[in-house]
Amino acid sequence: MSGNGRVLMCAPAHYGVEYVINPWMAGNIHRVARENAVKQWEELRGRLEELVDVELVEPAQGLPDMVFTANGGFLLEKKAVLSRFLYRERQDEREHFRRWFKKAGYEVADLPGDIPFEGEGDALLDPERGVLWVGYGMRTDLGVHPALAEILDLRVVSLRLADERFYHLDTCLCPLERGWLLYYPRAFDADSILQIEQLVPEDKRIAISDDDAAAFACNVVNIGDHIVMNKASPELKEQLGRAGFNVIETPLDEFMKAGGAAKCLVLRLTNHAPAAAAAATSVREGIVTIEGHLLHAGLLEKAVDVVVENGGAFQVLHFDLGKQQSSVSRAEMRVVAPSEVRINGILSQLLALGAKRTSAEESDAMLLPAPIDGVAPDDFYASTIYPTEVRVAGTWIPVLNQRMDGVIVVEPGPKPVARCALFRTLAKGDLVVTGSAGLRTRRKLPKPALTEEHEFSFMGAGASSERRVDLVVERIAWEMGRWREQKGRIVVVAGPVVIHTGGGEHLARLIRNGYVQALLGGNAIAVHDIEQALLGTSLGVDLVRGAPVDHGHRHHLAAINTIRRCGGIRQAVEQGVLTRGVFYECVRAGVPFSLAGSIRDDGPLPDTQMDLIKAQDDYTRLVRGADMILMLSSMLHSIGVGNMTPAGVRLACIDINPAVVTKLADRGSLESVGVVTDVGLFLSLLLQRLGL
Length: 692
Ligand code: NAD
Hints:
By secondary structure, the chain is an alpha/beta fold. The protein folds into three domains: about 5-280, L-arginine/glycine Amidinotransferase, Chain A; about 285-440, conserved putative lor/sdh protein from methanococcus maripaludis s2 fold; about 465-690, 3-Layer(aba) Sandwich (Rossmann fold). The chain contains 22 helices and 38 strands. It has an eight-stranded parallel sheet with strand order 28-38-37-36-29-30-34-35, with helices on both faces. Strand 12 and strand 13 (about 225-230) form a beta hairpin. Helix 12 crosses helix 22 (about 680-690). The chain is elongated, with a radius of gyration of 33 Å. The termini are far apart. Residues about 445-465 have low confidence and may be disordered. Bound molecules: nicotinamide-adenine-dinucleotide. Nicotinamide-adenine-dinucleotide binds next to helix 15 and helix 20.
């Protein structure tokens, strides 16, 4: 018996590629050369028998992948954690491995629930560091990592696999003797790479090339100073040699057809518990319920995307399906994430979708003081546009000044107050909501029948019919009429394109007729409007003839110069210099406007606020209390306004670029509508509808 321990192999009597469950198998069905496979396997076994004792599990007919014994389980001392295969094709292997482990005297542990775990394929012991590296994202589920830590009494480090060619951890990482680590960085997500780099010093890491990875150079069996593998490039061999390893190559291309090589064909039977090991995992979980039109409004899909895209995993614990189109469904989900920061990020996003933490988990919000002026505690909760409530001293209180991309500050006391704040307004010691506990949003869930009207398009390729655009313009006109009657607030955000496209006179008429209560823009819309009012051109183009005029570009500068001489737009109106146009109407009607500066600005006009913090504050003030916001062809200013606007305000976004409309209108709420069209045309239709 060898002093180097024992491994388990399974003869390839029934091996072949008979289905496709990984990218390597595609195109290889029935393409294994059976005799060659047997020869390669025998050679591998021979090589290993020089180093360790090799034990065999009986191959089973109809289970062609049983040859890859690494996936049968994970063994530590006398404990065997049995695998639960993800794919049906391999699930019957489980009982064969169970029988073998039992017969060999192992205490067999089943993981709780029915979550997939694929043995040593995804769980690799690093005795030097006393950790168990465990992969997830392809086969093994993140949800089993805490149970593994518990059962094995080990510290589990969770690594997310990001390239489906490297679907098991042992295809892209291998802890070696003396603290070395062989790995293929591109197979992991950024967080996992960071974890590897934090735990393994640079001079102990061997990162392999794309070519070596494709030849399964991480899928190795390391016994003492020997490394048995399919193949390594001369560079990798030299690197391993310098690290004190002797590389033994043995061709395994017949097994690579099924997506495996040396390590996949071998299960270690003699893993020893590292000294001073203790159960630990950074995996965190939360339970949420989500209710609404989960299927046809796509809410469940969105929730699941949030979890998976942020590196988490989920399990649906209960699902009550509403049977009618109009009835509501309810799902309870267990969500796991690899770290505290990740789970908080995921739960916050789920809360924004309208999910609730289950009542058992309800607790007060976690408040931490701002460490210095203008800086939030690290784990701050980022606010959204949805009406939010915070639990303080057992009571839910509404958050004031709701906006997105802010933080929530709580002023404690007998009557605590919660409000959204920006980093720059934080004072040292302000109590900021952190994590995701004690938070809930009240959100109107989209109804399936209405989501369809979310975005309209005309003039674009494959666009909706003009009739439909006509309908949405009519609807916007109707709403504007209603708000005017009710003395509501309509805020217009507009870019210079409004003037170029001949929409200036329409916008001026809207203002004159009381449809606009505030105008937000930048230097350009004002300059172009004033240039047109004073000289009949916009950026030197005669808008009546649609042609550039001689020395027209000078007009633009001359307009700025004139207003500068007057001291500002209001002064120019009062002095009788500016007698028509959008801004003239604003001054006449007492409609407040705010012009936010930018790096592109010529002049600027004296009215343009070049201190951007002041400009943001001005915008916020004018947006507050808005009932409806019309966003007319200004990506920059419209996005800025979108961020400071709470849900519930009706937004209409008009832009010729569908991507801009989608970004602005896609707030996941009923209140936004996008129209992909020329803004001049839109305004003219709108005025027709309003009868102006
Ligand atoms: P922006 O790129 O943020 O937005 C322009 C938007 O108009 C885009 O989304 C575009 O898709 C859309 N658009 C273009 N043609 C359209 C059409 N026919 N119909 C509908 N939509 C159309 O640029 P912006 O808001 O115009 O300007 C950004 C900043 O630069 C502002 O602060 C502005 O004041 C400043 N600026 C200054 C000057 C100047 O001072 N001379 C000139 C231009 C811009």
